[in-house]
Amino acid sequence: MNHFTIIILFFIINCISLLSAQDIDSTQKANELYLNAIQSINSGKYDSAISECDSAMGLDSKPIAYPYEKAFALYKKNQFDEAIKILDSLTNHVEVNPQIYQLLGNSYDALDNAEKSLEVYKNGLSKFPKSGRLFYEIGINYIAQKEVRKALSYWENGIINEPQYSNNYFILSKYYYKAGFTVWSVLYGEIFSNLTESEFKAKEMSHLLFDFYKKSFYFLKDSAFTIQFTTNMITSPIKRPNKDLPFDMAYQSVMQDAAKGILPADTLSFSIDILYQLRKKFIELWYAENLEKTFPNVLFDWHKMLIEEDIFEVYNYFLFNEGAPDETKSWVSRNQLKIKRFKELIQENMLKIDENHFLNMYQY
To answer: Does the pTM of the predicted model rise above 0.85?
Structure first.
């Protein structure tokens, strides 16, 4: 190899290195602009977000996140037609994901085109058949059409297919309470509380759960209070365990026994501490009678573990705190050591929900 050839090779290598460095710089800058766009959207600065996304795409046209975020900013500005143009083009993107179909369907829905939005969600579901968010959106669409059974079926199937997606639990918890299936309302609501990343929804569910339990323990019927977590009536003493007994009736029967000697006579004395004692006694009775063999329940198994670790009390105060904030504040001030221990242990003992460990009405 002569001296001239060596110089040429050295020049080519330097050019390649320079271009690679420029690519890296462009990619990093684009990502910074994208992150700034997210912050702008969160601050309500949608025009800034759109500009930042445009700049990011000018530096790096490959990631789907940049045009998606621009479409989201346009959606927040109520510029739905513009958002649809971008999102429709992204359905053929190599990185297409369920969120593209979700926002595209939401945009059509915002234009009062429910038929088109449903078509979009279902097209997305055919491409991503395990997407909990698309099951959720289809259910919302059917509710708007007053087709409640279809909606409930889609939300339940959303849990089955993607049990980690939280919003299906949230909406089902509310609907089952209205329908009188409070047992499923409280179970789904609690699972939601452990999965959600939304602080706002977590606070709402905390308040609702406390209220759901309270009203079920003090259900007014024929001018008298009675415990009612299900619309299925218990007309005679129930023998447990019984493999032919529906889950909701078994739940109510055990809860009635747990309430004896614990539940106050009036609602004014009801508290998180009482609710903690009731739920703890329920788990003790449930497992003492081997009902977990008839009705496997990932949530109950977890409660049992928290009781064994002696952190179930703290967990209940965290779960229901919005239902009785004054009681919670007083309890927290007196139990800092318990809270510290809970924080140390809970990270290694969090509720495990995945494709192999989840709870769904259809499993019983």
So the answer is: yes
